[in-house]
Amino acid sequence: MMACSVPVKAQNPATQTITLSDGGRYTGQVLHGKPNGKGKAVYKNGDVYEGEFLKGKRHGQGTYTFTDGEKYTGEWFQDHQHGMGDYYFMNGNRYSGLWYKDYQSGQGTMFYYNGDKYEGEWAEDKRAGKGRYTFKNGAFYDGYWLDDRKNGKGVFDWGDGSSYTGDWVNNLKEGKGTYVYGDGEEYSGQWKNDLPDGRGIYKFKDGDIYEGYYVEGERHGEGIMRYKNGDVYTGRFLRGERSGQGTMAWHNGDVYVGLWEQGHENGVGKLTKKNNDVFDGVFVNGKLDGEVVIHYADGTRFRGTFRNGLREGKAIEEDAKGVRFEGSYHEDERDGSFVERDKTGAITAQGRYEDGKRIEM
To answer: What's the whole-model pTM score?
Structure first.
């Protein structure tokens, strides 16, 4: 506030009381009709400043108390809060640090009414630059800020064993980062909108490891799942489940190559057993179901239908010597009429099977 040049009353040679330009009153040292030196100004709106003046402006050390109860005490420069100072907010917050032309700017600490605390850099009243925000419960964020939000590299520690170290954009995990969960699991990779999104590696507490793509926090796209027991799946995922084209190599030596849905073999696929038996056909929920061709390791070839993992219906089998069986199966046992032929096609036997037992005709 600017002061007028008309003295009202002289207290002593060093102190005067004058009327300010807003109608308020000033008592203190005066030079050329303006506050200059130490004094107290009571402004028309009820605000009070007590401290140093220079050529009519608040300049030097001083305390400004607002009518709403807020208060600033510290350094001033040409009527601006400028330099080191403390500001007491009406809601109970307190800022202690550097100011630039009435803004919290530079290094400073905010003590929040709820027990939280921020120590670090500020720009125009907002957290900006490097700083640490500590919550009352012990959790903290230590990293970079922009426009009062976490932006850039930073570490967030929740205090319960879980933490995130990596990139932030507008308070959200975005970019590259590593999240360590309280139960010991860990994800390291790409993030978007606070969720794993893109390529990453997830280490499960049971020892399983997934390496591949994520979409909105779920395994989605190409990936490899290495299970603790030695099983390895390589292929497509959909919303966290094995789905699409994929290969499972079990630790016992069996290998399946084909389609998956909802975590199970579903669709056309080929299962190669450790003993080199090969099952080629349609799978439903992990079991053969439909037209199937089997090439056994001993040279025998089977063509027929399966239901729920068991041979069911008409089938043709031919061994390595060309001996051919033509008949049917029921619940994985030969059942019903049959014909056997040699490699020339001549009938060598015929009859029936009942519950897997052969009855000659």
So the answer is: 0.85
